[in-house]
Amino acid sequence: MSMPQVMEANMRQSCFLKDFSKGMAGNEDFPFRGNIDLECLESLLENERHRVPLVYITVTNNTGGGQPVSLENIQKARNIAHKYGVPIFFDACRFAENAWFIKQLEKQYKDFSIASIVKEMFECVDGFTISFKKDGLANMGGSLLIKDDGFFNKAYPDAKDRLTNFQILAEGHPTYGGLAGRDLKALAEGLKTITRQDYLEYRIKQVERFGLKLLNYDIPIMRPIGGHAIYIDMDQFKQLLEKYQDEVGGGVQGAGSGGVRLVPEAQLLAAGREEATCGYTSKKLLRTVVDKWHKTEEEVVPPDEKTSTKGVSIKTIWARDIYKEWEVSVCSLPQGHSGDHHGTTTKGYTLEDTVTEELSYSAKQKTTPPKPHFTDELPVVDVAPHQIIPSDQDTPDDEAITPDEIIPPYQAEED
Ligand SMILES: Cc1ncc(COP(=O)(O)O)c(C=O)c1O
Fold this sequence. Notes:
By secondary structure, the protein is an alpha+beta fold. The chain has two domains: about 5-200, 3-Layer(aba) Sandwich (Aspartate Aminotransferase, domain 2), CATH 3.40.640.10; about 255-415, no CATH class. Helix content is about 35%, strand content about 20%. The longest helix has 21 residues, at about 235-255. Pyridoxal-5'-phosphate binds next to loops.
């Protein structure tokens, strides 16, 4: 089979599970959504064996949403492929993650170690490709590995020599170089770390926590939540965005009084219609407040043999913003009016300081913000980006400020 034919066969035929096309969200009851559709595979090989040089299973299934493939499905796919004399390979980028899911979800493997599940998985295939940047935990590198006594070598007996010859022509002899010793060492360590239950648990739970946060905001994601990534159903997400857009747009139009008027008023001014209103703006200091704690960095720290720390830990840097809260008044009388200014008042904030605190947690611990902390004494407010006034040291309290100071430039450009 020529290369273009192979590529055509690859592109034309994938045996995704049929339920995959039913929509991404809400199939929680089926845990192995990365499985290959065995009926589809059997019928493809029965009818078009000549078009199929190789069966490929991606573990976990990236294109299918980081979803796992069960060991039962891998074994059955192997049986079908071999029945028709077709070799079977893994794209093994996330092999350890897949093994973790097998341990969690396939009852008969619950007492197996990750390493022994990995062994069972790889016994089924005749070779695999792998990018070591994924579950190799390495900075660089990848591999094509072929089993000496596997179906691939039987089906394509000259392939290994041809590949080696091609490599010599394109890159040089296999012993000439390739990955640096430093990268190979990192890889050897990475492959050991990745099969640790606690490491995998931390990583996969981190993805789950992120997914649950998105679900809290009604963002439609693929469920059950997979391994290394969260996949958003863009069709549903688009509908959600349109709904929010309608609500937000309607809200602005309908805002006739009260605090929300600051932005439309200032937008009016910024849109070059200064002649319409006076726009005199002043601010009065109310109090000092803090925003909620937020994480600025999170890093997984491997166990330290010297200090005999057991298990990975998570280093988190928390940050909290301290603001001055102002009452901002904007005059909405016509320009050149006589008498006092009259208009709308709302709250604005200037950033005074950002405090940071570094904390370490074990992989199983919930990451909670620093407590007690001196900022606990201050009132907590939810500061929206459009409420932030750029700090201006030259503007004395209770003095006039320009409308530009109360509206960030990106807001001014909208509309
Ligand atoms: C499943 C899978 N296979 C292969 C690749 C390609 O790896 P690389 O970036 O090292 O070429 C990726 C990259 O994301 C992947 O997720």
